[in-house]
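Checked the freezer inventory, then went back to the computational side. Two predictions to log before the end of the day. The first one is the construct we discussed on Monday; recording sequence and tokens without edits.
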Amino acid sequence: MPRKTNRSYKKGAPHRDARLIIIATEGAKREKEYFEFLVHGNQRVKVRVLAPTDEDEGKSAPRWVMNRAAKYVDKFGLSEEDQLWLVIDLDKWALDQVHEIAQECVERKGWNIAISNPCFEVWLFLHYATINKTESQTCSQLKTGLGNIIKGGYNLGAIAHRINLAIDRARASDSNKAHFLPNPMETKAYLLVEQLVRFIS
């Protein structure tokens, strides 16, 4: 079934050849704000973030993230040029759940997964500093640390200028690039952001 979306050209909107990247997230706010800000106003790529809001509020387990993505694709379709990404954390879920979801992504054309260990804040932190992987940190500690190193607090406008630096740091710290699962204090989010940067550069 073709996707029901208007890609006709008008000023400030994606033109008809804009690439669509669908991102289903575990988090309801921070991930959504980050990815939408990243491509705001860009005419080469359009992002649709599927966050757990309204009737899905609180449904953040990997299976719910997968279900939101599948529901969207069933309704609108996924073209050859489009990409779909699941953005998942490891802090609260059993590894067998994550492995199951990752395997389903492998079996579906155009589906990908970007996991952060323990959470998305690892990716945000890398915009400003490398992470000492010998110190186990919780998501709460990472959030606190992020607030401590950013003058004036977390700011999307400031963080956006450090995207390429974050990609380089995340890639360099990725100790198992051939596997979808990051080790503690590592993230695979850079794989998704690299795809976005290809179109927004």
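The second is the one RB wanted added to the comparison set:
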Amino acid sequence: MLDDFVILRGTANPRLATAVAESLETPLGAVAIERFPDGECSVQLLQTVRHKHVFVIQPTRTDQHLVELLCLVDAARRAAAARITAVIPYLGYSRSDKRGSRREPIAAGMIARMLQSVGVDHLVTLDLHAPQIEGFYHIPVDALTAVPTLCRAIREEEQPPAGMVVVSPDAGRVKTAMEYSRQLDAPVVVLHKRRQSDVALEITHVVGDVRGRPCLIIDDMISTGGTLARAIDALFREGATEPILIAATHGPLLDDARRKLDYPTVKRVLVTDTIGASISDWPGWRIVSVSELLATAIRCIARGESLRELF
């Protein structure tokens, strides 16, 4: 029953959590979150959650947000919540899913152990950087995708140009690119890259025909913008034409990402509000909300219904 659940939110993305609660026509749970002078987190639940299913909505873009989430979950568990589902739209440290060399951590596995140890019974997230991250968890994981939401926005508001191709920035995003291809009825082109360091890379091959065709470049996230900028350069060297569309689920937008992507041929950059970053003075930047997707997932989970249609 929907009366038996409570939605709690942290401070990482209050706007998204509020939108989810409004879609579910339920108030957010009352929580007090403060910071001590030394930066430590103080959390207190201001209402009962005893024997209720608690959903905690909190992306973990920063370490501070992660600790806040852990505190919220621990507080709910100690307050006798019946079940705790962590709704983490952006799961931090997902890029650390394996060791690149010796003497390195696998941080994605470490985060999984932390979440489970404090009492998370179920994880809901969006577009993991690597699908195998689910294997680090011994609890149910629903890794949803924002691709249908982004494709709907592209079809209804961006009006895909004739002849458009979907571009995967590397081999790891081919499966996602195929889903965009299916929903937008467009062929797929794949870029091959050689990474020189954590921030430096080179596009070595463009597999597919882009000559005289506009492109939709897709990715799971936009951080520094370096990969996408090099992808745009490589596509135009192969004869691609404007406009260029970019679509990604997560948009941390670090450093000078805007400058790197400020091409006159880039018509639109679409990201969802999993993190909540916003650039008000960039006309090409557009936020697509995943609040309805998350609300539907929470409703189904609370009722014990299948999430099959969301996949």
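For RB: The mean pLDDT is 92. Residues 124 and 219 are 20 Å apart (CA to CA). Let me know if you want it refolded.
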